[in-house]
Design goal:
Blueprint (H helix, E strand, L loop, with lengths): L7 E2 L1 H8 L15 E5 H4 L7 E6 L2 E8 L2 E5 L2 E5 L3 E5 L5 E6 L4 E7 L1 H5 L21 E3 L5 H16 L6 H17 L12 H16 L6 H8 L3 H12 L3 H19 L4 H7 L5 H12 L3 H9 L1
Parallel strand pairs: 1-3
Antiparallel strand pairs: 2-9, 3-8, 4-7, 4-9, 5-6, 5-8, 7-10
Helix pairs in contact: 4-5, 6-7, 6-8, 7-8, 9-12
């Protein structure tokens, strides 16, 4: 792995990234699909802040006590008690800090675990906190806390019984139940549109996150999604008010900013990484979008 780049971590490499000095991290045979642990048993083994990374799995943390600062993309969130923070697979994240008194739960899961079997097609598309562009924060009202804590405890029990043939099945049931409970705490405006245009737009946004280093034109994404570029653009425009090219440029800018802030790559190397071979063209693109040059942006972060 080139350590100058932002790594994409699977469940196994995630453990090494977070706990490099903890040789006997509690783990299980199903950790690549599902894992849960208490925050208070693990956070003192982590050296914060964690370096920027992506994951192949979705994850969430839920605090019952204390506070933490975590990012999704370039947006930073401060989370307190009775609050969930969700991070979808492939999204850039850092974990800046967590208070020493923090208590609660961490969980990661492979989305394929939920998409297979008896789950109705598309049911998870109505969960904004699972989406790449959705709000990652869900606050739990006091009246609902007993139910939420019971479900998290049930998930923890399946972790302890990982060798049982029913553990994954029950974990799936409890995760889905938890997500349906949390969906009730999100506003209608946060939920993705349940239309054909909404589904195509969400698929486009997810594809941008996964393939931005290898596909850097609207035509390439239209081919990937098996739609025409014109139809893709109409769908994205209808749902977001912006063009498909605007969304692509936004993702290229996000990657550029992340690499400028969080890697040792030169400006020219970053330009090449996002598909712009001419460094001066990249600098013009960046300044048009931000008002400053890539070097000015990097220097401002270093101050």
């Amino acid at each position: 792995m080139d350590h100058k780049l932002i790594p994409l971590l699977n469940a196994h490499s995630l453990t090494a990234h977070h706990f490099p000095t903890w040789p006997e991290v509690p783990n299980s045979s199903i950790a690549h699909l599902f894992h849960v642990n208490r925050l208070e048993t693990h956070i003192h083994h982590i050296a914060f802040p964690l370096s920027p990374h992506r994951k192949t799995v979705h994850d969430f943390i839920f605090l019952t006590q204390g506070c933490t600062t975590r990012s999704k993309g370039l947006n930073e969130y401060q989370i307190g008690a009775n609050t969930f923070f969700f991070l979808p697979a492939s999204q850039i994240t850092t974990h800046q800090s967590i208070s020493p008194d923090a208590q609660g739960f961490y969980c990661h899961f492979d989305l394929d675990l939920l998409n297979k079997g008896f789950v109705q097609a598309g049911v998870l598309s109505d969960m904004p906190f699972l989406e790449f562009t959705g709000s990652p924060v869900v606050e739990v009202p006091p009246v609902a806390l007993p139910t939420i804590l019971l479900l998290l405890s049930r998930l923890e029990e399946q972790q302890k019984q990982a060798e049982s043939p029913t553990a994954l099945h029950l974990a799936k049931v409890y995760l889905l139940t938890l997500f349906f409970e949390l969906r009730g705490f999100t506003s209608a405006s946060e939920r993705p549109a349940r239309t054909a245009a909404g589904r195509i737009t969400q698929a486009y946004q997810d594809a941008l996150a996964q393939h931005i280093y290898t596909r850097q034109s609207v035509v390439a994404y239209a081919e990937l999604l098996a739609v025409s570029p014109n139809h893709l653009n109409k769908c994205v425009k209808l749902v977001t008010g912006k063009s498909a090219q605007d969304a692509l440029d936004g993702m290229l800018l996000l990657e550029s900013k992340a690499l400028l802030r969080q890697s040792s790559l030169s400006v020219g190397e970053i330009a090449f990484k996002i598909g712009i071979e001419d460094q001066s063209s990249f600098s013009r693109f960046f300044k048009t979008k931000t008002g400053i040059t890539p070097r000015e942006y990097r220097a401002a972060k270093a101050v």
